[in-house]
């Protein structure tokens, strides 16, 4: 497990440097551990070192690790494509924020489930800034309308925007995605909604995301090592 602690230190340094370079306060940027395929004992190693913001992509995995992690104080987000028939299971696992809300029917079903359980939840609106077919997220042109409609659902608190950047070695193109998300945050004006959070940036491009305004970077591989399947596998639930 020494590898995990070592890797976390490297990521910390990268975030520190990126904040300094972008003239941003270090407190503005949170590190979220993307823990898909990572076993609970490895996640616990990171938690015990003080890294307590984690997120999964699949409801099944959230459920599988829930018992092993529940006694350790942490914050659990969801960052995968969410099917409406899995909402109930997800809510059982004390997930405090769904970062991947990308369509109205999902929001409406979430609202009605939350009403039944007398709960509420934080969400980010996921925007498809790269316009790749394989990725989820609302089209940028429709993001404001979705924010407006979701804002009417009283159990759902919109905290910000999330995106998965273009999967490309061309970092200038990746940057355009993050700039677009930041621009949307400023442009979208809906009464009662403050889009404070921008969740963007992963292992390979977190510096760019921080330069463009990220408040949460989501890091998996650079901390826990390579996964066996390509990311598209985890982004297509079902
Ligand atoms: C896996 C995943 C990440 C982390 O990606 P890495 O390249 O492993 O850092 C971030 N966001 C989402 C939505 C993911 O599925």
UniProtKB/TrEMBL annotation:
Keyword tags: Pyridoxal phosphate
Domain of life: Bacteria
Cofactor(s) needed: pyridoxal 5'-phosphate
Domain Alanine racemase N-terminal: 11-226
Residue numbers bearing the N6-(pyridoxal phosphate)lysine modification: 36
Pfam families referenced in this protein's UniProt entry, alphabetically: Ala_racemase_N
GO terms assigned for molecular function: pyridoxal phosphate binding
Function (record text): Pyridoxal 5'-phosphate (PLP)-binding protein, which is involved in PLP homeostasis.
PANTHER family associated with the record: PROLINE SYNTHETASE CO-TRANSCRIBED BACTERIAL HOMOLOG PROTEIN, PYRIDOXAL PHOSPHATE HOMEOSTASIS PROTEIN
Record family assignment: Belongs to the pyridoxal phosphate-binding protein YggS/PROSC family.
Protein name as annotated: Pyridoxal phosphate homeostasis protein
Organism from which the protein derives: Leadbetterella byssophila (strain DSM 17132 / JCM 16389 / KACC 11308 / NBRC 106382 / 4M15)
